[in-house]
Prior knowledge:
single chain; alpha/beta; globular; Metallo-beta-lactamase, Chain A
Amino acid sequence: MHTGVQMKIKECGFTMTDNNLYVTMLGTGHATVTKCYNTCFVLRENDQCFLVDAGGGNQILRILEEQGIGLTQIHDMFITHAHSDHILGAVWVIRMIGQQMLQEKYKENFKIYASKEVAEHLQTICRIVLMPKIIRLFGNKIIFIELQDGDSHTILHRNITFFDIQSTKLEQYGFEIKEERILFCGDEPLKKKFYDKAMGCRYLLHEAFCLYSEREKFKPYEKHHSTVKDVCEMAEENKVKNLVLMHTEDSHIEERKKRYLEEGEQFFFGNLLVPDDGESILIEK
């Protein structure tokens, strides 16, 4: 049964200064969507945010503004991998934070967590398209932290452990927060070798490219992705409590939530969540 706490900030009247942790979905779509934004999100507690990916363009700036998230609230950003729909928006975030630093409006350091490969790619793009005065902040105020498998860092006063998801396409990282039993495995199916991380977890954030009933239309397996049925069966096998589906197609965006829930609830009997862009999920204590 779908009973989760899932809401649009502008409609529900709650604030982000209540000492609770929220996941706010800035985008929920795959690389080529046009009716929603590419999948990215923030973990929010009080007035602090941890940005996970940034989508494929400068729409990220509009979306952050619409969600009431100021750039000075973001001091940590994680880029999962180097595909355009995850990394290019990060250039705009860096540009705008860099400008605020130069204007002395952004006082603290900005930390960017990524694999060595992704960090190098992102810095190369920035050096091509950004002003030299922003590039000079690299290593000083804008800090790239190159991840290795199993590295842990304190973000939002929590110990977040990053892990190599063993991507079949290119190097990609996910993370887990053991304190709240949150697992995010990037935009590929969770490998069986990591099922121990998923077993009994309270919140699993997982890609679901399309409905199983539409697999011939969207061909998710050719793209190394899952269907709703696949993810739900895996989550049920691993006794996941709350399953959040993201990184989807957008052909029937107005009915996506209803249709994905109808298929998914046949195979997963925990709390299934299919957020739209702009929706927030309360991480219940």
